[in-house]
Amino acid sequence: MGRRRADELPAMRRHGRSNQARVRLGGREWFLGPWGSAEARVEYHRLIAAWLENRANGRDREPLPPAPAPEPAATPQTFERVTDDLTVGEVALRWIEDIERTIPNFRRNSKWSAAIVAASAVNELRNMPAKEFGPRALLHVQRRLVETPAFQRPPRKGEPPRPAKMRSRRYVNDIVARVRQMFEWAMLNELVPEDRVVALSRVPALAYGQTAAPETEPRTAVPDDVIDRTIAKLTPEAAAFVMFVRLTGCRPSEAARMRLADIVDRDKPVWRYVPTTHKTKHRGKSRHIPIGPKAQRIVLARAAGRPDDATVFTPQRSVPQPRSVDVIRIEARKPSPRVGDAFTKDAIRIAIARAAAAAGVPHWTPYQLRYSRLREIRRLDGRDAVQATAGHADARMSDHYAPPGWEDAAAAALRSG
Predict the structure, then answer these.
(1) DSSP codes, 256-295
(2) What is the pTM of this model?
(3) Backbone angles phi and psi of 234, in degrees to 5
(4) pLDDT tops 70 at residue 58
(5) Are 252 and 367 in contact (CB under 8 A)?
(6) Is the pLDDT of residue 24 over 50?
(7) CB–CB of 93/119 below 8 Å?
(8) CB atoms closer than 10 angstroms to residue 8
(9) What b/e readout covers 391-406, taking b as 16+ CB neighbours within 10 angstroms?
(10) pLDDT band at residue 296 using 50, 70 and 90 as cut-offs
């Protein structure tokens, strides 16, 4: 195991004998709870926040606050009625447990990860009775989210302190909305009185320009010349992945999971990729991704020699190939056993960030490729083609990705202005 870099946060690891999550902070091991549980993730974020605060204030040797005594787990499918001693922390944990029990493959669902963030946001008030959590408490949570950094990496040796990364206004509003959603779930299960939910709904969202929280830059398309210069610094496998997303406009996660077995109509000019899982599957929606001739050539080249049930793009081929230096032949190294069969969103994002830096182009992310393709379709084929390609149930979402451009307004002005 390599040494952790100075700017890296301590990782949560699994203790094999006890199946507990653990993290090493301040020279000692902290056990967080059952591995993979919501309780462990909430406790991990609590300890990391306290550890970073100590480091920022020069109190590296000061002990971290002790963990609260563990509470017995709630019996599945059993809910209590409103009680005086039910706390905010207990409501948060039961909400997360309900998500884990009812949503298949919950770790890939945004509702679960958002619930973890919401539970961390109310962690300071976890001992407050749930029936007393009202607008003032929610406003306190909102204010703390604005004033405290999301995280602040400790500076490297000899470097000045790094600026803290603050939460954006939209992100704070999203977290507060998730806290309201948690209490709505609790009200439906008779854990809190209905008036709590009504009162919390009166807390306004942060308005544009009226708060210290920074604004996020809108996500835009990435120019083709930037893509080409970045691809030149990627491995052939990652470059093929990027080009496939650019040509189809699919989500990077959909491209990462694609198998030949999921592609139908291969005897027709346009193939149809039907993902086994996608963003809106839990709503009963179907997803069909068209694959044109250029993207078909990429699929055939990368899937050659692989079984139909294997992913088309695999990071195991993103390793240095055999090459000769003078009279010495350097053999290709085998992929690490930790490398899986499919790309993850973080792996392809990091690869693109490093390649963009090496190429000297502005930083961009893989999801911007979807914006590039959908705006190209809007320009050439219109709004309906954008909605069909992207798989949007609401055309307003298509306008978000590919809004009407200046060209449309200019053409209208020429015709009748």
Answers:
(1) HT-BGGGEE-TTSSSEEE--SS-TTGGGT----EEE-HHH
(2) 0.67
(3) -95, 160
(4) no
(5) yes
(6) yes
(7) yes
(8) 10
(9) bbeeeeebeebbeeee
(10) very high
The SS3 call for residue 13 is strand
Q: Starting from the edge strand earliest in sequence, which strands make up the sheet with 20-25, in order? A: 13-15, 20-25, 28-34
In the numeric block, the tokens 């948060």 are attached to 92
- CA-to-CA dists, residue 146 to 88, 150, 176, 215, angstroms: 21, 9, 11, 12
SS (H, E, C) 335-394: CCCCCCCCCCHHHHHHHHHHHHHHHCCCCCCCCHHHHHHHHHHHHHHCHHHHHHHHCCCC
Query: Which two structure tokens, joined as six digits, stand for 203?
Result: 């807390």
DSSP state of 317: G
Alpha helices (runs of H) in 79-168, residue ranges in sequence order = 88-102, 110-121, 135-147
Contact partners, residue 341, CB within 8 Å, separation at least 6:
310, 311, 314, 316
Strands 28-34 and 13-15: unpaired
Q: Give the tens place of pLDDT for each residue, 126-139.
A: 889 998 999 999 99
Count of CB atoms situated within 10 Å of the CB of 74: 14
Q: Which of 64, 115, 124 is nearest to 94 (CA)?
A: 115
Q: How far is CA 166 from CA 150, 214, 353, in A?
A: 5, 7, 21
Rounded CA separation 150/166 (Å): 5
Asked if the model's pLDDT at residue 43 lies above 60, the reply is yes
Q: Which two tokens stand for residue 128?
A: 């407050």
Q: Which of 292, 294, 314, 293 is nearest to 303 (CA)?
A: 314
**Cα angle vertex 62, ends 57, 65, to 5°?**
100
d(CA 187, CA 138): 16
The DSSP secondary-structure symbol of 260 reads G
